[in-house]
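>> received
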Amino acid sequence: MAHNFLSLLFSLFLLFAFSCSDGQMVPAAFSFGDSLADVGNNNHIKLSIIKANFPHNGVDYPGGKATGRFSNGKNSADFLAEKLGFATPLLPYLSIAPSSNSKAFLGGVSFASGGAGILDSTNKHSGVISMNKQIENYSAVYGQLVQQLGNNEMQKHFAKSLFAIVIGSNDLINYFKSGSDLRKQYTPQQFTDLMVATLKDQLKRIYNLGARKFVVIGAGAIGCSPAQRYQNNTGGCYEETNYWSIQYNEGIKSILQGMKSELTINYAFLDSYSLLLDFIQKPASYGFKEVKSACCGLGNLNARVPCLPVAKYCNNRDEHIFWDFYHPTEAAARIFGDTIFDGTQQFMFPINVRQLVAI
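>> returned
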């Protein structure tokens, strides 16, 4: 009996400590999504072919080592965590999942997986953690925490926490790639509608597991990535992909507005399409000089061969928008993170994260 009481007392102390950490604006942050937020989950998937745990990734990360981030350094999830006052980056779920001590998850964790999509079929055979599976993993964490620390206390904890989601780009990339079977099954409108409807169900599942504050990051101007430019004979942006990225983003905004009117949620949405396009159209305003080519890779636009150890990488990384054929440099990711946290309504809708966490 005494042991159980002391265990409960210690658990409540931990919960209080996480709720009141110096400088930390939220008690926890939980991250879901794809390679734009992956902090190393795919490193722990033996059969995954979508990894970034090799050079030249991480060349500018503290220690100069590849961590599994698809970047030369930190990604936008890292910068957002810093803005929120977290002393250390979120850990990848799979790095601590075997632990029987659920308190390891109390301050949050990243479920994001490079290559993941909204749809289970997206990169299904590439060894990634789909959005549905990420929510299952979160559900397991939720259940453990509620069991150990009590439902009432944990609901308060989750309600104050931040739930960040960046997903959908890989679904769109797979649909529009050359020879895609998906184009035989769905029109672009049908496919985008399917993505949005599926994401709506997924967000509601996360809501039912305690989430009340969401930050959702829309699809960028995918058609302007080096990979898509490389496939375009003109070398310009692939406008069809861009158009449907916009339609997908409008769908996200619609479901978030609907959820806010139906449920007790608040949210911040980043129009990353418009922000990335602003980088490209006004690079000097952001300190960029190269808007088309990847920093790391081989071939035209450094996009014929991805950022493998055999590839070359540029010295002026802070002047490039793109690190590899799809992912932003650390410099670009920093601006994304700053905008998510403190951006105006030019890119954030209806509020930014600083305003969201204050509610």
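>> Confidence is low (pLDDT under 50) at residues 2-10.
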